Structure formats: structure tokens, C-alpha cells
Amino acid sequence: MDELGGTAFVERLQFFNGQQLFASDVQAIDEFDRGMRWLHNRSLHQAGVGNGFAVSGRRGDREVSIQAGYAVDAQGREIVLLDTQVEAVPPVSGEPDGQPAYFDLSVSYPADDDLEEAETRDGVCMPRGAVRLRERPVFCWVRLRRDADGQVRAVDAGQAMQIQNGMLIVLARAAVLNCQLNADLSIAQRRRARPPQQPVIRCTTVAASWEVWELNGKAAIGLKTTVDTSAMAFRTTPCYSARISGERPLFITSGEFQAALLDGPAYIQNPTASGFGCFVPVLALPGFELSGAVLRRVIKDPGVPWAVTWLAIED
């Protein structure tokens, strides 16, 4: 419930005939709608570009062009650009060693002090005041450096934290040499507000508690176990596959009793999001016993040291 941390309460304003309205009453309506919308954005999206914000800049250019777009920051605030914005390339010659200097072009939500008064009106026996404030995104070039460990980071620690926390949205990366782009802009660094849905793949090996697998409750044909996958928190039933890990053949002797077991392919039955049944046909080498009693004795003492290695793919 971290997304609700900044929400003190939820109230809907209600009016009645004859009520005297103040500016704070009407503003509260806008604040309520905006707050719930931002809560929606924080809950269902990550900070990043929703659509648009195409950035163009070719090698040798001294300006970059940013097209109209929509993005969301970590507080759920909408960053909207409705027309084309042109930004000058940072006026730097490069790094001290003659290599290009790297910058990330970022965009952020404007602070209240940055809002332009789009319309003002005279009050009734009151001073003139603003009735419309225009929101325009704030663009900023973030200077980058490569650390000793090879990681590219923002030189300014505050900007680095803002990028990490989703308050500055990276649109593109530029290599600048002699006050111009040394290569075409790269957009590989930008993050989407709607991350692409990719298959979830999980694989692990687990110890198994084996039981005798009997056909129609009579003839013993192998071993069975239940594999618990609930720790993976699958949302739907994934596609499972499994194999048995352990020695082949498995030799077991105790006095006159002896058995040498070979396993067959693992069969999966009753798959769910939290687990599946694993059934393994078992064969005995010639000259060795195989029956329900033998399998029960094998399970009990010394036990079957076969583990289950499984793979799950959830679309």
C-alpha cells in the first residue's frame, strides 16, 4: 500500500443551493480529481514515456528536436508536450582526453513556480489574479561520466537520484564533441510507462518426497511426487516441463534384497499456478526385483535420491 502513503483521506465535495462558494472550494475539486488520477498512474504504471516524445538528432547537428508526447513521473504526474520543442546541444568541446562528452536529455514535471499565467482576471473588489496556469515540461541535459567500475552515471548526485527515483525521465543520450553531436541520438536508455509484457521463465531443482505410483491401485509402475511452485507467485498456470536429477541406474542392496532402478520420462499431471504432480515410470535392470513392495522399501530405506528439475514458462 505504499502508493497510498501520501493520501491522508478521500473526500468528495458536495454543494447545496444557496451555499456560498470560495475559490478554495472549486480548487479542491481540481485537487481531488488530480490526486486520484495521479494515484491511478502510480498504481498501474511505472515512471516513463507513455507515447510520443520522439527525439531526433543526427551526427553534426547542434540542435535536437523533441516531438509532442506524454510521460508519467514517479509521483504519477503527467508530463505533456503538445508542440515541437527544440533544444540546443550542450556547448562543450568534449572530455579532457579528447573523447566525446555524454549527456542524457531528460524531461520533468514543472514546479509550481515555473507555471506560466495563461490568463488573469480582475476580482470583484479584489486584486487581479490568475485563473489559468499553463504547464510545460522542463527539459534538462544531464552530464554523464564513466566510473571506475565502468558504469555510466550522472555527474550531479542529485540528478542521478532523480533519474533513479523516476522524477527525471530520460528521453535520449547524446555524445557531444566540439559543441555538436558526435553520433546520432540514442533512445535505448528511455523507459516506457507501460513495460512490455514478456514471458516469465523460472527454473530450479527441488528435493522430492516420493510415493509409489500404482496403476489402478494394483500394479506398481513407478514413483510420484508433488512439486510446490507457489513461491514463484505465478498469476496463471504456466507451461511446465520436468526431468529427474540423480544417479542412473540406482543400485540398492540390503541383505538378500537388491534393486537397480532406471527412470523413464517425467510426466506432469494436474498443473496449477502453485504446483504440479510429477509421475515417473520406473524400470528394473534384468535380475533385479521390481514390485510395489520393493518400491515402498526403496522409498523407506534408504530412500530415492532423485530430485526434480523443472522449468516453467508463463505467458
Polypeptide structure, described:
- This protein has 315 residues and is mainly beta.
- The protein folds into 2 domains: 20-181, no CATH class; 200-314, Immunoglobulin-like.
- The protein has 3 helices and 22 strands.
- It has helices spanning 23-44, 157-164, 292-300; strands at residues 48-52, 55-56, 63-66, 69-72, 78-81, 85-88, 101-108, 116-123, 126-134, 138-146, 152-154, 169-177, 180-181, 200-207, 211-215, 219-228, 239-245, 250-254, 257-263, 267-272, 275-284, 307-314.
- Strands 15, 16, 18, 19, 20 and 21 form a 6-stranded antiparallel beta sheet that branches. Strands 11-10-7-12-13 form a 5-stranded antiparallel beta sheet. A 3-stranded antiparallel beta sheet has the order 1-4-5, with no helix packed on it.
- A hairpin with a 5-residue loop joins β4 and β5.
- The longest helix is centred in the first third of the chain and has 22 residues, at 23-44.
- It is elongated.
- It starts with 22 loop residues before the first helix and ends with a strand.
- 21% of the residues are buried.
- The mean pLDDT is 87.
Provide the fold topology.
Blueprint: H1 23-44, E1 48-52, E2 55-56, E3 63-66, E4 69-72, E5 78-81, E6 85-88, E7 101-108, E8 116-123, E9 126-134, E10 138-146, E11 152-154, H2 157-164, E12 169-177, E13 180-181, E14 200-207, E15 211-215, E16 219-228, E17 239-245, E18 250-254, E19 257-263, E20 267-272, E21 275-284, H3 292-300, E22 307-314
Antiparallel strand pairs: 1-4, 2-3, 3-6, 4-5, 7-10, 7-12, 8-9, 10-11, 12-13, 14-22, 15-16, 16-21, 17-22, 18-19, 19-21, 20-21
